[in-house]
Amino acid sequence: MASGPFGLPIDAGLAADAREGLAAVEALLLESVQSDDPLLTQASKHLVEAGGKRFRAMLVVLAAQFGDKDAPGVVPAAVVVELTHLATLYHDDVMDEAPVRRGQESANSRWTNTVAILTGDYLFARASDLLADLGPDAVRIQARAFARLVRGQIQETVGVPEGGDPLKHYLQVVADKTGSLIAVSGQFGALLAGAPAHVVDTVTSACEKIGIAFQLSDDILDIASEAEQSGKTPGTDLREGIRTLPMHLVLQGDATGPDDARLRELLDADLTDDALHAEALALLRAHPAMDRARTDLRRWTDDARTELMTLPDIPAREAFLGLCDYVVTRTG
């Protein structure tokens, strides 16, 4: 066994394949953001060189194991999903007025909002250029996923419609903004490697569930973890007024605790105040909603695991199952 994604123990041969595949992805990714314009090249490389887990690219590489892992479209497809993801980060930072991304000054802070937006557009264009060589089916898959990304962002920006269910709205946003591109990652890997249709469909569905679970785990960690554990400031969502799964469970009464009234009052307050923020964070950490949120998270990974168990018994399947375990255990 060898160390694989997120330190998970995986088959040594698969680990070697994954390292080789991701190295090829990194090389093409850097090549793809080059431009004749120095500023555009610099701005495009800004987030690429800042690093990142390359989670989506890794899923493409793993899913390709169910077919011809060396098929010529696998690496370009992995670069397509990474370029698309990176492009959304440039746009997100403008919308959120974020000063920092991946430990570095964000593009909008370093240059301007206009440069950041146009750089994101450029990365989308580069992704489309690569897609054109992968065939009309790949173009259609990516276009539909991108439509979901935009829909999710609009739904999050506008908020819950009159008479709508806030928790259902939140989960739909998570599925569209996060789950959609992660689903496409698995789909591209299996499809372009020539895996059987039922394998492609199963990997696609399981990856969407894993993607949703990853976002839910991030939301739980934002509340539960200390800064030294996660590398992020705890309670960022609380401070910014972003309602995530545990908060929805409290507000809808789906989980009850002794300080419900005070916590609900705080969740409707301006939590940029340090004292109020600290009080809300402490009450939420101790609330039964956290355990309920972890139970909901496990349901998503259990569903993904059930689907994955129908796939051929190869090391890649174990790697995907390991990811399900990792998503759950990282939230404590």
TrEMBL record:
SUPFAM superfamilies cross-referenced by the UniProt entry: Terpenoid synthases (SSF48576)
Keyword annotations from UniProtKB, A to Z: Magnesium, Metal-binding, Transferase
Matching Gene3D superfamilies: Farnesyl Diphosphate Synthase
PROSITE patterns noted in UniProt: POLYPRENYL_SYNTHASE_2
Statement: the UniProt record of this protein carries the keyword Amino-acid biosynthesis: no
Cofactor dependency: Mg(2+)
Family note: Belongs to the FPP/GGPP synthase family.
Protein name listed in UniProt: Polyprenyl synthetase family protein
Lineage of the species this protein comes from: Bacteria, Bacillati, Actinomycetota, Actinomycetes, Streptosporangiales
